[in-house]
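F.,

This is the one I mentioned.
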């Protein structure tokens, strides 16, 4: 690589390193090389100051270290933002879970109240029907007693006939 190409390469990489914000110092004493002036003849015999190989290597090492530090800081920032976002999501999830728990408890209490009311209504209806059935059974008992007292012969003959039929059926 000739000196001009190396100078152009360093100018372009200096802009990249400057973009990273590392502030690496180059041989000209600034953080970036001067921009390429297109009116200059790149093949002119102007003296170009080139860094020594050890200085260039040192500069590259320094730029690499600065890049590594900047990347590490960026990674730390990304990790911190991810943790903050994760904690915010966790808090939101807990909040929503509590809300759903409250809503579910309210719904369960409502359904419990409705079910209790329905059960009480069914119980009341059953008790009313049981009472009516008892009254009807007592009325039938009284009616049967009255019939037996008024028609004792018919009742005894009917009971004998029913007993005779039951005896015939059970014998076979």
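My design for it:
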């Amino acid at each position: 690589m000739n000196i001009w190409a190396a100078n152009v390469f360093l100018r372009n990489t200096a802009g990249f390193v400057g973009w990273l914000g590392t502030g690496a110092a180059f041989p000209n004493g600034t953080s970036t090389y001067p921009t390429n002036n297109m009116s200059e003849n790149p093949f002119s015999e102007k003296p170009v100051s080139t860094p020594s190989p050890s200085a260039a290597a040192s500069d590259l090492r320094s730029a690499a270290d600065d890049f590594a530090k900047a990347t590490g800081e960026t990674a730390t920032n990304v990790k911190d933002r991810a943790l903050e976002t994760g904690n915010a999501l966790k808090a939101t999830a807990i909040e929503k879970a509590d809300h759903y728990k409250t809503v579910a408890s309210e719904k369960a209490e409502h359904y419990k109240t409705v079910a209790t009311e329905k059960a009480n209504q069914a119980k009341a209806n059953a008790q009313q029907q049981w009472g009516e059935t008892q009254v009807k059974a007592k009325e039938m008992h009284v009616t049967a007693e009255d019939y037996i007292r008024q028609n004792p012969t018919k009742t005894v003959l009917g009971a004998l006939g029913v007993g005779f039929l039951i005896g015939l059926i059970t014998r076979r």
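Residues 14-26 have pLDDT under 50 and may be disordered.

Talk soon.
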